[in-house]
Amino acid sequence: MQKASQNIGININLLKFMALIRQLQSYYNIYNTLISKINMLHIFDFCTMIVNLLCTFLLARLYVIGWPVGIVGLIMSAGLFSVSGLYADAILQMILLFSFGYGWYSWQPNFSHKKIVVHRLKIIGWLKVLLSIGVFGLLVSQLLIFYTDSTTPYMDGFTSVASLVCVFLASRKIIDNWVIWMVVDSTYIVNPKDICRKRYL
């Protein structure tokens, strides 16, 4: 009788163990299903957005560390654009990389033996900026027309040049760079090509 009770107890424990195994297997299947639905590119995309937002915040607060953070963001963006087949945008990120390097260097305390203070553009400064964007933007647009298959050469050309100008202004702590950034970003928002990208950047 006692032996029969022990056998029943063993069978019950075995059934519980098998039920636990099935439950763990069920959880494992659910985990695999969730992982398969998560696009790793989207995760990398989101992380890139966070790094770029952090860069913007740090530079707005005039922290020099914002430049190296921005460099990391540019490298991540270049990789993201390359994987997505957006090679022109990837090249732009690499060009901006040198601009960010200059910004990082120019914000160092010993640069030109003087401290750069925050200031604004005067009328003549605005004319120079707008003229530079206009001339070089048109030049880059023509290069895109003749040497690439860009579907929006003028928008790409002018926004690329404007982005470089913005980085230069930021490196000189000219606060008006944010005005140009807002215009550039607004064109990216309404650009159908960027809507198709489905990216967070």
Relative strand content: under 5%
Mean pLDDT comes to: 76
Low-confidence stretches: 194-201
Radius of gyration: 27 Å
Largest sheet: none
Order of helices and strands: HHHHHHHH
- Assign a percent range to the helix content: over 70%
Question: Distance between the terminal alpha carbons, to the nearest Å?
Answer: 73 Å
Strand elements, count: 0
Q: What structural class do helix, strand and pairing data support? A: mainly alpha
What is the number of helical segments per DSSP (H or I, 4+ residues)? 8
**What's the number of domains?**
2
Shape: extended
Secondary structure layout plus pairing:
Elements: H1 2-37, H2 40-60, H3 66-83, H4 87-106, H5 123-147, H6 153-171, H7 177-190, H8 192-197
InterPro entries: NMN_transpt_PnuC
Transmembrane segments: 43-65, 85-105, 126-147
Protein name: Nicotinamide riboside transporter PnuC
Q: What can you see in these coordinates?
A:
Keywords: Cell membrane, Membrane, Transmembrane, Transmembrane helix, Transport. Its main location: membrane. InterPro entries: NMN_transpt_PnuC. There is one protein chain. The C terminus is likely disordered. The radius of gyration is 27 Å and the shape is extended. It contains eight helices and no strands. Helix 2 packs antiparallel against helix 3, helix 4 packs parallel to helix 6 and helix 5 crosses helix 6. It has two domains: 38 residues; 159 residues, no CATH class. With 201 residues, it is mainly alpha-helical.
